[in-house]
Known about the structure:
Largest sheet: 2 strands, antiparallel
Mean pLDDT: 88
Low-confidence stretches: 1-5
CATH class of the domain at 12-144: Mainly Alpha
Order of helices and strands: HHHHEEHHH
Shape: globular
Helix content: 40-55%
Amino acid sequence: MAASADPTVPSADERRARFERVADDFDRLVQLVPDERWDAASPCEGWRAVDVLTHVVDTECDLLGRMGFEQPDVEGLTPVAAWQRTRAAMSAAMADPIRNDHAYDGYFGPTTFGRTVDDFYSFDLVVHRWDIARATGLRDHEAIAADLIDWLRTGADGFGDALRMPGICGPEVTLAEGASPQDRLLAWLGRDPSSPAG
């Protein structure tokens, strides 16, 4: 598949590869969460760990539906099984060049399904993986790769004021000098990297 004509816009192959990478990381984490930890409070105010996972499933299913693509049947499934079925549907859509490049008018103007996944849904998978890892005490799974930190910060800057809309990210958290790049990113996204597990 040809690269995008604009070098600042990831190609369909790059978008797909990033989604698969972050979805793999997210999937590995959620399979490790003990059943009794899903009710733990998450860094997202008012949400338990299971609510974060359900949010991921619901928003991805909603996107598929809005594009006119077939939505996975997740009724009656456990949240983890619902995520895995939804992830499979998203992966199939990202792997299909026609669906990946499906054009529509988005919140920020004309875009495609694949670019929306890359800009918002892959972004969500990285951040919400940290939320679930922190909530459930799986601290070994909180690390965000350096290249993803740079990508997330660039993406967050591109959201402008929309980043602080209700239900998106809260106010930036103030950190002491010398905080790590990951902690600075999380603080920018309204998360306190020093908060205890739920």
